[in-house]
Amino acid sequence: MDSLALILHALKRAAQDVFNPRMFALVLWPMGLALLVWSLLAWMFGSTWREAMESLLVMTPLPGLAEWLGADWLLGSTAFFFIIVLWLPLVYATALLITSLALMPLIVKFVAERDYPGLERFHGGTWMGSVLNGLVALVLYVLAWVALLPLWLLAPFGIVVSLALNAWLNQRLFIYDAASEHADVNELSGLRKQGGWPLFGLSAFLGFLHFVPVLNLLAPVYMGLAFTHYGLGRLASVRRVQA
């Protein structure tokens, strides 16, 4: 099965599996917990965040522009805008991290038992490896998002950057989790390095679902299912070729 066919198959099977009672019971947990955590933090520290952002913006040409336009509200509104632009990806990344660490073992077990019962397990990854992978990915993601924050003043560029960063994070997190139990160390490394543009396209599409209302509630578990079908399907295909 070629890469495109495998990706389409993974998306189709994930769409079917996400409504299975065992998987549907998991759907609301990642986004629900992430929203709860970050909403509480915003309620507790929102004023502090806004003051800190305004302090940073004071060092830019924005106060002079606000004075020239006679728009006293500009500084505060821009600070609020940037806080929202940072808050949303933190919710997104937290939901994915919850899915990666807490739910992916359940998702992989579900998919493997039903679709790949004969696929041998070599345990090339570990749960601690997943934790380290997730934390490194999250730190790099947030740092890149902060560094590229000014691009959100140019709306189309901000959207492109958002999709690209989300695609990178999705791929970094879920390929490891999907295949770590079944692949050996070399196979796991190969899956992460050889996916190419098709895998990046899958990651970008799955990341886009988080911008779609209602679907974004399903997205973390659907994403976990899609990457699991892709990872185990690719692994089974490689092993058949090598046999």
Can you walk through the features of this model?
The longest helix is centred in the middle third of the chain and has 42 residues, at 74-115. This protein has one domain. The protein is mainly alpha-helical. The model has no long low-confidence stretch (mean pLDDT 87). It contains 10 helices and no strands. The chain starts with a helix and ends with a helix. The chain has helices spanning 3-17, 21-24, 28-57, 62-69, 74-115, 127-147, 155-179, 185-193, 196-208, 215-242.
Pick out its properties.
243 residues, mainly alpha, 0% strand
Quick overview:
Helix content is 80%, strand content 0%. It contains 10 helices and no strands.
By DSSP, the count of extended strands is 0
Overall shape: elongated
Helix content: over 70%
Largest sheet, strands/sense/barrel: none
What is the domain total for the residues?
1
> Count of DSSP helices?
10
Radius of gyration computed on alpha carbons: 20 Å
Please state roughly what percent of the residues sit in beta strands, choosing from under 5%, 5-15%, 15-25%, 25-35%, 35-45% or over 45%.
under 5%
Oligomer: single chain
Secondary structure category: mainly alpha
Which segments are poorly predicted (pLDDT under 50) over 5 or more consecutive residues?
Answer: none
Tell me the distance between the termini: 16 Å
Order of helices and strands: HHHHHHHHHH
Q: How would you state the average pLDDT, rounded?
A: 87
